[in-house]
Amino acid sequence: MEQLLQHLRNLSFTEMEAKIMVELAGKGPSSGYEVAKGLGVSRSNVYAALQRLSQHGFLRRSAGEPVRYSMLKPEELTQMISGQVKESLSFIEMRMPRVEPDQQPFYSVEGDRNVMETLTRELERAEHEIVVDVWREEASLVRHGLEEAEQRGVKLLWSCLGADEAVSRLLPWPSLGQEERGARPGRRFSFVIDRRWCMLGMRGEDCTTQGLVTEHPVMVELLLHHFTQEMVLFELEQDIGEELTERYGPRYERIYRKYVGPDSAQAEEQKKLTQQKDA
To answer: What are phi and psi of 133, to 5 degrees?
Structure first.
């Protein structure tokens, strides 16, 4: 009973109105006096609530004396409420003032539930394309939403990494002037939807799930370029893997380390020290 009353209150009915509706639904057509007696409350409060409910169409009111009130069937009541809510939501969406920012903002979402709810809403809105770069653990969480998008005709491009594979074909940049920190605290993930909305985040067992969300075109472009580079490298490795190894050998990895490995970090630090001494 309390759950039913709570749900009626959630739909903006007052405590008195909710109790009257449940009372009438259970006992059938009744006068105001009978309702007040059944609830054990004052008749004046009951009569005022009955008047409001009947004016809004939630109760039927008989002619004659005494006036008797009866509830709509449950399906009629829910259909009426649903129609009113949809009408109000549509009006708010159309008439609510909007202030368009000069630049698309960045905002952060924290917590596993909040991140997943934000992402799920955008997956449901996708119309043309979804670009996904995730680890296997995160892929399992969004699989249903991605499958539904594909069934709607949305193009899906994805890259999925697992714990038994290399972290990335693009090596991570080391920290400058700091000791190695060891394993990363979480797994990086990114989503780009319809080339207008993106989320870049981190998730793991030992860290709080966080996501950076924006529609800024620069971030969208950066994530798309990163995805493209990884996939092109993957295709090249698959296509000419043996030839690549024969031609470059160990130098293949050193090409990366020339720019982002420890040597480049040390060189940059040494350059700063030299500049300080010269000054």
So the answer is: -130, 100
Whole-angstrom Cα distance, residue 45 to residue 17? 10
Question: Rounded distance, CA 111 to CA 101, Å?
Answer: 27
Q: 193 has which bridge partners? A: 130, 197
Decide if 211 contacts 200 (C-beta within 8 A).
yes
Q: Tell me the per-residue pLDDT of 145-162, one tens digit each, with 9 for 90 and over.
A: 999 999 999 999 988 876
- What per-residue confidence (pLDDT) applies to 180? 52
Token pair belonging to 67: 């006036």
Half-sphere exposure for 89 (CA within 13 Å, toward CB): 6
User: Phi, psi at residue 31, to the nearest 5°?
Assistant: -85, 170
The confidence score (pLDDT) of residue 229 equals 86
What separation in angstroms does the CA of 141 have from each of 77, 93, 128, 147?
A: 37, 30, 21, 12
Q: Rounded to whole angstroms, how far apart are CA atoms 269 and 277?
A: 13
Relative to beta strand 129-135, strand 155-161 is parallel
- Other residues' Cβ atoms within 10 Å of the Cβ of residue 185: 13
Q: Are strands 106-110 and 68-71 parallel, antiparallel or unpaired?
A: unpaired
**Per-residue H/E/C for 227-243:** HHHHHHHHHHHHHHHHH
Question: Tell me: the pLDDT tens digits for 217-253?
Answer: 999 999 999 899 888 888 877 787 777 767 776 666 6
pTM given for the model: 0.57
Tens of pLDDT, residue by residue over 96-108, are 887 765 656 899 9
